[in-house]
Write a structure and sequence with these properties.
The chain is an alpha+beta fold. It contains eight helices and 17 strands. The strands form two sheets. Strands 8, 9, 10, 11, 12, 13, 14, 15 and 16 form a nine-stranded mixed sheet that branches. Strands 1, 2, 3, 4, 5, 6, 7 and 17 form an eight-stranded antiparallel sheet that branches. The structure holds pyridoxal-5'-phosphate.
């Protein structure tokens, strides 16, 4: 359950949480076309509140808007400011931001070119997405019976809301089966990503992750981890990964704004490595948290002060 905050930014103004409503004929509610983002703000050890990689998230929001032909009425700068204003209006020292660009009500039917394109930013408090224990000890995953969309079926590089029916179905299947998260293969059988996370495999000290031509979202945490890994002297290989390579990996972990850096200790009832969080995952996770909320100031370009 999301804890209510005071204000939501809607089409240019801050409105009360209870007034941030839409009509039932909102086009995106029926057909799922529109863009959204998930962004985190953290309080660092020096007390300052910083949004992590705000520029990149807003760029991806606008890329999704472009891919889905939803032209927002606001500029990137205005949406960035809206994110900051929403955190400030709710006195939040940390939290999750959800900008959303959607097709409002007006005409119904698939083609509704004149419906308004609406923009909102919602903020709420969100702890560890898969739980604190998941961050510490890792999670159990299942390869989903649902494949990730083929690149020509949907828009893998768009964070488009309708695309997430695929994720919700896979997540439910995994949870109902007693697992923590689903890992999705693409239609050719190669490892794609989690339901809301990118995936990394460590084998013999090298980090592997699916390349960007595969049906994955271009994760901003994925980019963060690849950058950190290279700084730590770890080779990063963007390539196709098979299910067996996953099962035989030394370490596997997921990355995402919500999931942060979550180790995987088991896939399809096979322990990953020794079934405990491995040294490279630990190192990268520690560095990640030090950058987003600790005292590592090596990447000021990733932080926007609130
Ligand atoms: C399907 C999917 N893959 C990967 C990610 C990770 O992306 P990011 O690290 O930018 O949050 C997300 C989350 O946004 C996602 O929904």
């Amino acid at each position: 359950m999301v804890d209510k905050v005071q204000k939501v930014w809607m089409d240019g103004e801050l409105v009360n949480w209870d007034d941030a409503n839409v009509h039932l004929l909102t086009h995106s509610l029926h057909y799922g076309v529109g863009a959204f983002e998930g962004i985190r703000a953290y309080q660092r050890t020096n007390g300052s509140v910083e949004v992590f990689r705000l520029n990149e998230h807003v760029d991806r929001l606008f890329d999704t808007a472009k891919l889905t032909l939803c032209q927002p009425k606001f500029t990137r700068e205005q949406v960035k400011q809206a994110c900051i204003d929403t955190l400030r209006a709710n006195n939040m020292s940390e939290g999750y931001l959800r900008p959303i660009i959607f097709i409002g009500d007006g005409a119904m039917g698939i083609y509704a070119p004149n419906n308004p394109i609406r923009t909102a930013v919602i903020a709420w408090k969100w702890g560890a997405y898969l739980g604190d224990e998941a961050l510490k000890s890792g999670i159990r995953c299942k390869i989903s019976s649902f494949a990730r969309h083929h690149i020509n079926v949907s828009l893998a590089k768009a964070k488009m809301m309708g695309q997430y029916t695929n994720s919700v179905l896979a997540k439910r299947e995994a949870k109902f089966g007693g697992y923590d998260e689903a890992i999705m293969l693409d239609v050719n059988g190669f490892v794609s990503e989690g339901t809301g996370e990118n995936i990394f495999v460590v084998k013999k000290g090298v980090l592997h992750t699916p390349d960007l031509s595969s049906s994955i979202l271009e994760g901003i945490t994925r980019d963060t981890i690849m950058t950190i890994a290279r700084e730590e002297g770890i080779t990063v290989n963007e390539c196709r990964i098979t299910r067996e390579q996953l099962w035989l990996a030394d370490e596997v972990f997921l990355t995402g704004t919500a999931a942060e850096v979550t180790p995987i200790r088991e896939v399809d009832n096979r322990a990953i490595g020794d079934g405990v969080v491995g040294p490279i995952t630990k190192r990268l996770q520690a560095r990640f948290f030090d950058i987003v909320k600790g005292s590592d100031s090596s990447h000021p370009e990733w932080l926007t002060k609130v």
